[in-house]
Amino acid sequence: MIRREAFGSPAWHQMVALRYDVLRAPLGLAFGAEELAAEASQIHLALWQDGRLAGTLLLIAPDAQDEATLRQMAVRPDLAGCGLGRRLVLHAERELLSAGLRAVRLAARQTAIGFYARLGYDVDGAPFVAKTLPHRTMRKALGVQEPA
Questions:
Q1: Does the global pTM surpass 0.85?
Q2: What would the pLDDT profile of 122-132 be if each residue is shown by its tens digit?
Q3: CATH number of the domain enclosing 82
């Protein structure tokens, strides 16, 4: 089951812990208080499996071009490769499309570009470094046929 969770809720705290474990701890990076406070206006999606948090991602409200931003996607390492990340991303895209948005963008770690490309995302722009790792901006027009 995938559902929205409220900022500051117990579920949100679990989501932050999962994102820390998967995305930050391996780099020796912590979340700052200001960084977490900025999440108050974001959409927090959680994927629950057998009553446990299995994955999460954040969505930032659209900009002037009706383009939202997907960020901080994480899946429990013991469940990696089971299609949960794909389910989360496609669910997020359907939510955005039903809200009338036309596109979504993200900053993909170099190691995740193939994952997002298989979901129909295109690399857009030059490589850059964020949180000590190489990234690429990727974009997808919503309403385009989903990959099989």
A1: yes
A2: 998 888 888 78
A3: 3.40.630.30
